[in-house]
Amino acid sequence: MTHLFSYLIIGLIGLFSMVFDPAYAEGSSDDSSEAGSPLYGAAQEAIEKQDYAAAVPLLQQVTSQEPQNADAWNLLGFSNRKLGNMDQAAAAYDTALRINPAHLGALEYQGEMFVQMGQMGNAMVNLTTLESLCGTCEEMTDLKAAIDQAQG
Hints:
Number of helices: 8
Low-confidence stretches: 1-35
Largest sheet: none
Order of helices and strands: HHHHHHHH
Radius of gyration: 15 Å
Distance between the termini: 24 Å
Strand content: under 5%
Number of strands: 0
């Protein structure tokens, strides 16, 4: 129950930050990382090839060099989740969302992790947060599909 409350607070912070600073929503998906970062680009290429084991050390280097890069933390979480490293994935998503509580990609991927772990209440909190941030954006519809599929 404590986790559910935490995610509700994160969602509300993200919503309020967007209301008072509309530019905050920019970069809320994983397409906004610095284009000049060769490590980040290499990690994205590895992920596109579904080579998550290769992406993880690259993203660890990026997050070490750019600790405020929410996109890199999000992709680190995604890669770890795909490898079954749920503890590392959870920590990376938490970091991405501490940096940017309105990060649409991190909210979607964290929600999908919750679905995989059977934490449907937490997944629903992320879905509600996404709905409030972006309406029927791709991240929201993807998470909703994952929830619907899990509920059978």
